[in-house]
Amino acid sequence: MPYASDVDALASLIKQNPTWAAINPKHAARMRAQNQFKTGLDIAKYTAKIMREDMAAYDADTAQYTQSLGCWHGFIGQQKLISIKKHFGTTKRRYLYLSGWMVAALRSQFGPLPDQSMHEKTSVSSLIGELYTFLRQADAWELNHLFRDLEAAENAGDAAKAKEIEAAIDGHETHIVPIIADIDAGFGNAEATYLLAKQMIEAGACCIQIENQVSDEKQCGHQDGKVTVPHADFLAKINAVRLAFLELGVDDGVIVARTDSLGAGLTKQIAVTNEPGDLGDQYNSFIDGDVIESADDIANGDVVIKQNGKLVRPKRLASGLFQFKAGSGEDRVVMDCIASLQNGADLLWIETEKPHVGQIAGMVNRIREVVPSAKLVYNNSPSFNWTLNFRQQVFDAWAAEGKDVSAYDRDKLMSADYDSTELATLADEWTANFQRDASREAGIFHHLITLPTYHTAALSTDNLAKGYFGDEGMLAYVAGVQRKEIRQGIATVKHQDMAGSNIGDDHKEFFAGEAALKAGGKDNTMGQFENI
């Protein structure tokens, strides 16, 4: 509802309740406007619609891909969205990513943990709630400044300015954007997955990403020792997530089905199969084993399966895990993705070992032969050495073209000695264009970086600590942080305001009138940053 209309409606309501006479309808309307979303489910429904519209836009034009950065704290997510609005004027097609890796490493009560689903699963839904609390506060903070400006214009009798500001209030774009939330491998059986999915949705998640690893053997997507599950197990968890969405009324909730099969060489169990060619039979066809001719070939404890019409003894490790055939990863990825899309998933995630458009496109094109609308969420992972990967890709492309590459040592292309070379320059161009190229050629709808803010926090802290505790002293902070905040227009330079001090002052006035004890008076040192 437009602000002016809400003021009129509230004035009428207050008039009907004589004991509310101290309530100013403008204050009530202002507080309503600054709190657009009342519950996490309101957010989930709103952002699910955004994602569905963005998916349709991408289908029509692959240049309309979406992006996100992983954020491990509400403040980090808030500052990211404030920055996006400042630089680009809109949050359109920009999301947040909630990384299970960063929850494990930074948010567990056990302390820093590896990405192996050992952290408290409720930490995931708690972080979703925290992120949206900070994004809602960003709305309140931005609108609070507009309302202060409106009040100033009205007090000055500047009707034209007041009308302009009121239009900006009514047209305000929220900082609330979709979160793609990582539920790992579901943290247990399908019922456990359902219960956690409900918590995540109630906290505001419109999109849940789930992977096909064994829950109690889960590894980071870029670590060794990954173990996948048969499709029936994984699809049961997809069903659990879908039912959680439907139960809570988020009918267009989005499910991202991640496959780790490209790098996973192990399975914990042999799939149940009822007839040749079914999903269980296809899964089992990739298990490595030795053909047996008679019962004499079977030792105590051996398992035997029928594979392509022959009896096979699967290779079983001391851990009890079974081994897949070498080189079968890509075929298993394609099978996983088709099965997921045909059984309730909306988007795919293929975890790869390198950022290579051709490799990704090769798999997606095979998937699209069966499901033409298939599209990906892709991890632009910090686990890749991007500089080395793209320099080697350029090197290989030049070598294939017959270009002389004798001036370069392929294994040492990371060296700073190559930074100013033609090869390095082209590799940086390929890196800059990776998201555009991969969205156009390899079906990537959403590009994310899982844990960039883990690295940025470490890097910025290292730079500050090096200078502050060294010869620079206070200049390290002043020149390296505060002066840059001022000159780049970073709102946190007025950190009291960013934390909500001005909102609190205004509320005090709403509650107590002239008796309000405010923090923002003449003795507040934040005044040193006004008009800069």
Characterise the protein shown here.
The protein is an alpha/beta fold and about 525 residues long. The protein is about 50% helix and about 10% strand. It has two domains: about 35-270 and about 325-400 and about 440-460, Phosphoenolpyruvate-binding domains (TIM Barrel, Alpha-Beta Barrel); about 470-515, no CATH class. Helix 6 (about 120-155) packs parallel to helix 8 (about 190-205), helix 13 (about 385-400) packs across helix 14 (about 420-440) and helix 15 crosses helix 16 (about 475-490). It has helices at about 5-15, 25-35, 40-60, 75-90, 100-105, 120-155, 160-170, 190-205, 230-245, 280-285, 330-340, 355-370, 385-400, 420-440, 450-470, 475-490, 495-500, 500-510, and strands spanning about 65-70, 95-100, 180, 205-210, 225-230, 255-260, 265, 290, 305, 310-315, 320-325, 345-350, 375-380, 445-450. The protein is built from 18 helices and 14 strands. The chain starts with a helix and ends in a 20-residue tail after the last helix. The model is unreliable at about 220-225 (pLDDT under 50). The strands form three sheets. Strands 12-6-4-3-2-1-14-13 form an eight-stranded parallel beta sheet. A three-stranded mixed beta sheet has the order 5-7-11, with no helix packed on it. Strands 8-10-9 form a three-stranded antiparallel beta sheet, with no helix packed on it. One of its GO terms (molecular function) is isocitrate lyase activity. InterPro entries: ICL/PEPM (IPR039556), Isocitrate_lyase (IPR006254), Pyrv/PenolPyrv_kinase-like_dom (IPR015813), Pyrv_kinase-like_dom_sf (IPR040442). It catalyses: D-threo-isocitrate = glyoxylate + succinate.
